[in-house]
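Collaborator request, handled under Task 6.
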Amino acid sequence: MSSPIVPPNVLRTRLAGGQRAIGTMVAEFRQPAVMRILANAGFDFVIVDAEHGPFGPETTADLCRAALADGITPIVRVPAADYVPIAQALDGGAQGVMVPRIRGIDDARDAAAIATYPPAGRRGSALGRGHTGFRSGDVAEAMAAMNAERIVMIQIETLSALEACEEIAALDGVDVLFVGPNDLSIALGVPGQLDHPLVEAAIERVAAACRSTGRWSALQMNTVSSAVRWAPRVNIMSHSAEIGMLQTAATVAVAAVRNAT
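C-alpha cells returned to the collaborator:
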C-alpha cells in the first residue's frame, strides 16, 4: 500500500529490484550538506551513527530530512534496542534503523516490533512529523505504507546473535542482517583481524541465513579493497564513514604534494 504523505524508500526499491546497494556512515559531521555531498558521490544510503556518533535526536532528524531531500535513504544506527530511540529516529525522518548490540532472537523481535505499526508491531502513531514531510493524511493508509517502506537492520556483532542468526533472519519485520565485523572479531577472540577465518566464516554464515530466508545481507568494510572483495557476496555494502574517507583522501593528497619534485 502507498500513501501520498509517505516518501518511497529508494534503498528498498533498489534491493527489491535485485541491485547491489552501496552506502556509508556519517559519524561526526552535523552539517546537513554532507548528505548532498554523499548523494552526489553516488551512495544509495547513509547510516547516521547515533550509537557512537555525537548526534542527539534533533541533529539526527535534520540529517535524515536532508538525506530525503537529496534522494538518498537515511538509516539511523540507534544507541540500543529501546522504544524511544527507535521511534524518535523513524518519526524524525529515518527510513530505517540499524539496531546494535543484539543478544539474540528476543532482542531482534522486540526491535522489529518497535519499528512496526499495529497490528504487526507496537510503534506509536504520530503523523505530521518529519517522516511524512509534516503532512497529515489517512492514519491507516499511512501506517500501512510506512510499514511497507521502512527497513529494520539487525546488527550481528555478538556471539549470541551470530548463533541465532538463522532464527533472527526468519523473523517477521526483520529486513536486513548487518554484520559489524570489528565488534564481531572482538567477540570471536581475534580483535581487528577482519580477514581471520573465524570472522570470514561468520560473515558467510550470516549471508547464507539471509539467502535462505529471503532477507538482505549487509556488511561494513572500511577499505576499498575489502569492500570490493566482499561486495559480490552480500546485498548491501557500507563503506567507511565520512571522516574516514576525508582523512584517507587528505592524507594521500598531502603526501603527494609534500613529496613533489
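The cover message to the collaborator said: "The chain has a mean pLDDT of 97. The two ends are 63 Å apart (CA to CA). Please let us know whether this matches your experimental observations."
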